């Protein structure tokens, strides 16, 4: 469960609201029940006291004490009566229903009521054995002036038990209800959010792949429908702008190729002229060098715009990556040797991916070429290839000049070069990593970089691993790579012939 998802947040919000409502409700129920039970007990004590006054004390003088005793014992039998009843006259007990048996409460230890305190009032006290009691005392004055105190009382233990049980029920039920509401709410939210999830997945798909596809329109007539329509319109506009951009760079680089070739030809012809002054020769050579650089840039731009547009003719076939990496490194080892750089290669066998052989080689070439370029003499470059979690992982690490931390996020951008790289005479075009990234993208892969300035740089390419059957593997291995035709041109050749077919070197 993603805690930051809309579904989780809406559920959390609604559970929080429900929790507040339940807590408020529980407190209200508890207070209400307690008030109701206390009032009921008070009412019962009050009614008992006043009915004793009316029914037994008023006729007492006429009917006599024996009748009174008999009637009281019958109505409020000793030990059984709940509430208990005690009647006093001038400190003398007229009637006492005695200790209560159920619940057992000792009444006999309670102090006698006096006229001085608590008349016509409910007060709480405790029996000698600690039980909580509620007691009510009224004073009755007979027609001939006798002052009689009537005391009624009851144990508050049943009431407290009831309240305690209610408290426990609320305490257990509230989290239980909240848990059920959270799980139920989370599951129920899946349904209304399904179109949003579909929309998001499609939007991601459109972003990752080409833009040709559109988002599904949710025919709900609400905000979701408007959102899907608005997003589709936005994708239309983006697609248009992107296509315009791609057309522009493809057209520009295409248009630049012919004049560049002509300039090159003219300059080379000039260079062949006899008795050319040394200064002119220098100038022409320098112009040729710059022309070569420009050709490389134009070629790289064309490659990128084709990869972007998906118009690049790529032959996506099952490929054994280890042999591609090894063959390519073999071809590049001379460049490393020139700088006395130790180039090591460690590849796992049987790592298959679906891809275009030439483009996959280009990944290796561009990364290793950079490593060689940015590693000082006597440094080391290590290339590793292994499988990890259904991905083929290619790592190229070097002990070179590294990249400043602030420059790292920009190195995959087109024409980006760090300051150290700019100051180098060998200088690149700033398009090598952008091409690798575009190739990775077109192979559903990723490219990432880690670097410590002045120490090391590691580039990591991940491509989806291809699972092949034994038969497919043997079929694949029957197609032998011909090292002669795959021969890697040297950097000098690259400069001399920056034509499109030389895709093995860094462009
Ligand atoms: P360039 O043609 O300039 O090498 P890239 O796109 O290949 O262009 O690389 C972009 C920038 O990233 C380079 O200019 C360089 O500053 C930096 N860079 C790339 N690879 C490395 C590396 N292995 N070590 C140090 N810096 C690197």
Ordered list of secondary-structure elements with their pairings:
Blueprint: H1 6-57, H2 60-75, E1 84-89, E2 92-96, E3 100-101, E4 104-105, E5 121-126, E6 132-141, E7 147-155, H3 157-208, H4 223-272, H5 278-309, E8 317-320, H6 321-338, E9 342-347, E10 352-355, H7 357-373, E11 380-388, E12 391-398, H8 419-423, H9 432-442, E13 446-452, E14 456-464, H10 470-477, H11 491-496
Helix pairs in contact: 1-3, 4-5, 5-9, 6-7, 7-9
The protein binds adenosine-5'-diphosphate.
Structural class: alpha+beta
- Reported by name, the CATH topology of the largest domain is Heat Shock Protein 90
Helix content: 40-55%
Q: How many independent structural domains?
A: 3
Task: Tell me the major beta sheet.
Answer: 5 strands, antiparallel
Lateral arrangement of strands in the main beta sheet: 2-1-7-6-5
- Overall pLDDT metric: 85
Please tell me what the overall shape is: rod-shaped
Q: What small molecules does the structure contain?
A: adenosine-5'-diphosphate
Mind telling me which CATH architecture of the largest domain this is? 2-Layer Sandwich
Helix/strand order: HHEEEEEEEHHHEHEEHEEHHEEHH
The number of distinct β-strands equals: 14
Give the N-to-C terminal Cα separation. Answer: 45 Å
Quick gist of this model?
By secondary structure, the protein is of the alpha+beta class.
